[in-house]
Amino acid sequence: MQMEEATRSQKAWEAKGSPPCEHPRKVKEYFAGSPTGDLICTTGGEDFPQS
What we know:
Elements: H1 3-15, E1 26-31, E2 34-41, E3 47-48
Antiparallel strand pairs: 1-2, 2-3
């Protein structure tokens, strides 16, 4: 998922009142086509930094 998509997902989730999310699916985050090393929840757009 591109970083811009994640930001849109986060804003949409916040607009819904930020309900609890169990993060059923996480995918790799990309910025300008390059992986950032982080994972993103496809439901609410939450970022999960990887060490």
